[in-house]
Amino acid sequence: MIQNSKSSTLRKTISGLYRFIRPYKGGVITALTASVIAAICDLAGVYLIKQMIDNALASETQRIAMIVVLVVVMVLAGLGANYFLTYATGRFGTKAVGDMRNALAARLSELPMSDVESERSGDLVSRVTNDASAIESFISERFTNLIYSPIIVVSALIYLGSLNWKLTLVSFAATPIMMYIANLISKPIDEQSSNYYGALAEANSVAQEAIAGNTITKAFNLQKPMYAKVEGFYYKAMRNGFKIAKQESLMRPSVVMMYELPVVLCTIYGGYLAVSGLLGAGVLVAFLQMLRMLVIQTVQIPDLVANARSVAGAVGRITDMLEAPIERTDGRAFTPVEKGLVLVEDVTFGYEKDKNIISGVSFTLTKGQTVALVGSSGSGKSTILNLLLSFHEPQKGAIRVHGHDLKDWNLKALRDQFAVVSQDTFLFPGTIEDNIRLGNRDADFNQIVEASKIAGAYSFIQDLPEGFQTQVGERGTVLSGGQKQRISIARAALKKAPILLLDEATSALDTESEAQVQQALEVFTKDHATLVIAHRLSTIKMADEILMLDQGHIAERGTHQELMEQDGLYRHYYLRQSNENLANEEDLEHV
Ligand SMILES: Nc1ncnc2c1ncn2[C@@H]1O[C@H](COP(=O)(O)OP(=O)(O)OP(=O)(O)O)[C@@H](O)[C@H]1O
């Protein structure tokens, strides 16, 4: 189970960040050193201005020349330090967050299926994208503040106090007013921005669904209501956006006032002291300059704290995912056997406690034999396949592959024993050749061609202008459902695993292509132990054993012939399908 921290402790945040920053110590040290140099240069600049004014008033021309040189040196050193600081934080931030994203993606592929199924995919993706981006911007934009700001604040306070403690106290008089105004203004903005992002996220997800369901939207003429729904959410987001803009326009003069108030107070009181001869011009100018530097750093603190809080949340969510338990990696790879490749012994399973989806199921898969699972939708056919692949563990009974309990198998070695063609014919971005090669990454091109012939895919691939090099996947050539299915079958054929799992493998094919693929599969399944799920019963008539499932238990079992001789569920099911097909054919004849 993946935790979902709303907040994170300081320790967890620091250790979560440290883990990824540690390899880039050089970059961190460069950034920290550059921060210190930049702070020293800025502080020295103010001190030198005071020296310059004092010496100018005393007509010390030679010393002034030396100070000018020092000012130039400080400006150049400050520029250099800022260059290294920006470069180093940008570089190690990008690298550390890149590593973080890779680690998250790797972890995602290692999580148990039950965890992935129970999470919202949007939430998992958001940890890899939004949370990681928030950390990346914090490192590149805020890392400086961690060392630069404290140096400036502490040094400025000491320097201001040493210049004139009374004037320093006057500047502090503005602090409570500043804090009060900051709090007053930022509160509604915090609330409105969380409303704004919430509404925007809702609007985006509705828009995403509308794009994904474009065909249905058009076919049902739902454009208007769909568009109205999307528009409604965007209007809601926009209204919150307006409120933020209004609040920000109020905030701007207040922020300027926050910056200026201490300076204005000190200018008035400092001017009075200077006119009274109690304060030198150099001291007054240096004081006001240093005060401005101090204020710039302190007004950033609330923002920095808010930013650090949200980054701590992001680090927490990422750490939760990185620390979520992964699928077990123990167990052994056993030697394949010829007979009884798979034994399912009295297996009972439910996704939730006390709600069995599969009850007391037993069967055997042997090389060269095909077992078919038949049953109405939701009767548990795919669940049995998932149990064989050890995506879930049975609560009762046992499953043995090559004579060994799945619990004793290493999961990777176990899954190497299976070639799967699932209901969802998913093609990855890349060429057709790449997609077939996923079955066996060491295969040469001839083997890929061979596999495509077994799957009945060779001729349509040859007809494509770029043949096996055709790009497929989301942005590639659009293939038909049947073509995609044949590529999935070719991928499974290339794997040459001893056990074949076909989950509605020919469901997307028309009758003619289905017959072709069926013929190919018959040759292909001869060397395999095959478990097939089919809705179209015509495709499994030749199976060695048919298991008729009813609400998770085997209601009937036998060959097609045997089951047809009983007046049971299968016969009923078969005749209903045949009658439907017949009715469809008659309808076609009347057209
Ligand atoms: N990950 C899951 N978590 C909880 N329940 C699930 C999960 N997967 C499937 N189920 C439930 O288990 C039952 C059996 O589902 P399964 O997919 O095995 O049926 P099926 O016979 O393959 O159906 P179909 O022919 O429609 O594909 C259904 O009630 C389904 O809602």
From TrEMBL:
Lipid bilayer topology: Multi-pass membrane protein
Keyword entries, A-Z: ATP-binding, Cell membrane, Membrane, Nucleotide-binding, Transmembrane, Transmembrane helix, Transport
PROSITE patterns documented for this protein: ABC_TM1F, ABC_TRANSPORTER_1, ABC_TRANSPORTER_2
PANTHER family: ATP-BINDING CASSETTE SUB-FAMILY B MEMBER 10, MITOCHONDRIAL (PTHR43394:SF1), ATP-DEPENDENT PERMEASE MDL1, MITOCHONDRIAL (PTHR43394)
Bilayer-crossing regions: 28-49, 64-85, 143-161, 167-185, 261-288
Protein name: ABC transporter permease
Predominant localisation class: membrane
Protein origin, superkingdom: Bacteria
